[in-house]
Backbone:
């Protein structure tokens, strides 16, 4: 089974937690000399620093993949799996991640024509099309369908092809900004399938009024 990473900015996130863990280890050393009683304070700092510097790395470097017709993915650090046939919808939108001091921000990269968004993929048990206009980013999609969300990740086109060719029988919804950027690659995978819909940010109610 080929595995794919769930986070894009793995290096900076890993460095942050390792540095934070080292700070607490340093505080543990200082506690041996300046705290009374020294041992409980030092041990607490050593343990907390070790946990802070190592445990988050399992989330930072978490991976997912397809084994046959079964999706394998982590949730809260615990390995999970789900049959592709049990997934009702897939939303392809803008991938965003948490940036310290900035909140959740779209992840982008430089191209010859300017900056482009990294695509994200959110897999859902079910979906209500009337609120798709809210789902321009990974985080917004997850919040809109929080009870139906199976998992989410940066989109890897090799994985998308595996997933599409599995027992998945649901629908795929592609945000128009992402479709404009990656149209050729997406069309190569989906062809002219009727199970694929490109959506925008105009609410369904407004579209009905215009008609």
Residues:
């Amino acid at each position: 089974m080929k595995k794919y990473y769930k986070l894009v900015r793995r290096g900076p996130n890993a460095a942050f937690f390792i540095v934070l863990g080292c700070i607490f280890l340093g505080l543990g050393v200082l506690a041996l000399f300046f705290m009374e009683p020294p041992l409980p304070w030092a041990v607490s700092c050593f343990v907390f620093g070790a946990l802070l510097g190592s445990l988050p790395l399992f989330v930072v470097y978490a991976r997912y993949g397809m084994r046959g017709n079964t999706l394998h993915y982590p949730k809260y650090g615990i390995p999970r799996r789900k049959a592709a046939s049990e997934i009702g919808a897939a939303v392809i939108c803008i991938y965003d991640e948490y940036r310290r001091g900035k909140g959740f921000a779209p992840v982008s990269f430089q191209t010859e024509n300017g900056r482009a968004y990294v695509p994200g993929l959110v897999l859902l048990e079910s979906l209500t099309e009337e609120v798709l206009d809210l789902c321009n980013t990974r985080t917004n999609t997850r919040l809109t369908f929080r009870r139906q969300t199976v998992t989410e990740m940066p989109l890897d086109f090799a994985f998308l092809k595996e997933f599409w060719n599995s027992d998945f029988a649901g629908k795929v919804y592609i945000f128009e900004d992402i479709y404009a950027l990656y149209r050729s690659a997406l069309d190569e995978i989906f062809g002219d399938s009727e199970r694929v819909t490109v959506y925008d940010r105009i609410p369904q109610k407004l579209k009905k009024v215009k008609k």
Observations:
- The mean pLDDT is 88.
- The first helix runs from residue 10 to 34.
